[in-house]
Every structure is written in C-alpha cells, then in structure tokens.
Specification:
Layout: H1 10-21, E1 25-29, H2 35-38, E2 42-47, E3 53-59, H3 61-71, H4 76-84, H5 90-103, E4 116-121, H6 129-136, E5 141-148, E6 152-160
Antiparallel strand pairs: 1-5, 2-3, 2-4, 3-6, 5-6
Helix pairs in contact: 3-4, 3-5
Length: 162
C-alpha cells in the first residue's frame, strides 16, 4: 500500500484560519517549535482509526491565544492577558479545541486513512512522549508563522508521524 498522506499546504492552512476566524490571516514560512516552546504550546494529537498517532500539531501560546480570542470574538486584550499569564484561559482553550477539530479536515483526503482529533494538550499539561517525538521529528512537517489580523501571531508546526 502506498503512502497517501500529504501535508496540507500553507494556502490551505491560511484559508482554514480565515474562514474560521472571519478575518484576514497571513501565513508565511516559519521556524519549527523548539523543545522549550512546546512546554507552553497547545498541541493537537491526531490519530487514525487504529488509535495510532497520525500527526501532531503545535501552536505557540501566542497563536493559540490570538486564534482562540478571534474565534470567540473576544477583544485582543483577552489574548494578551492569557499570553502574559503564560496559560490558555478556559474560554480560549475551548475555541482552540474547536479550531483543532476543524483542522482535521486538512488531514483527511480520499484514499488516505481517516484521521480524527484524539486529544488537545494545553500549556501546563503533560505532553505524551510519543506525541512530543512526532512533533519534534524531522521529515514530513510544515512550519509556519501565522498572523491573525488585529490580534497577533505565533508559530504553528505540523508533523506527520513516520
């Protein structure tokens, strides 16, 4: 069986964010999340039907807070307060969970294994070692800087499991 997994393109990521947040979003190539940044990142773990990790997506705290605030139509100050306190407030976390769930649509395609959102790990929670390894792995990955207009920006890293 051939490998039919494909990373979504940066345009697809931008379109998803813009459609979901209802505002302009700028996406550009970025650096991968570092091991240090993962400690405060929001990480979505995607699995296939057999519960095997298919991909891990990490969002820097600033991106998670800004996207969560924009999705909830909250003022940018809500995101700034969350970033200042180095935690993702529950109302923002709920919105980010929904964003991660919808992001799954970029990972599913005809002929490929069905992928679903398994879990979202928020800042301060323990990230499972296997998901951490996937997120830090070299190879099939997409690293972007995502800027949400009138809110702010942050890194997004998506890595497919080997």
């Amino acid at each position: 069986m051939s490998d039919v997994s494909v990373l979504p393109g940066s345009l697809a990521v931008r379109n998803l964010f813009e459609d979901l947040l209802g505002r302009e979003v700028t996406v550009s190539p970025g650096d991968p999340l570092s091991a240090e940044e993962i400690r405060t990142a929001t990480v979505a773990i995607f699995t296939d039907a057999g519960q095997k990790i298919y991909a891990a997506m990490g969002m820097q705290l600033s991106l998670a807070a800004n996207a969560g605030a924009a999705l909830g139509l909250l003022p940018a100050g809500a995101a700034e307060d969350s970033i200042d306190e180095k935690q993702l407030f529950p109302n923002l976390a709920e919105n980010v969970f929904e964003l991660c769930n919808i992001f799954t649509s970029l990972l599913n395609k005809e002929g490929a294994p069905h992928v679903k959102l398994y879990q979202v790990i928020y800042p301060g929670m323990e990230l499972p070692g296997d998901a951490r390894a996937v997120l830090l792995a070299l190879g099939r990955r997409l690293d972007l800087m995502v800027e949400v207009n009138r809110y702010g920006k942050g890194k997004l890293s998506l890595s497919l499991a080997p």
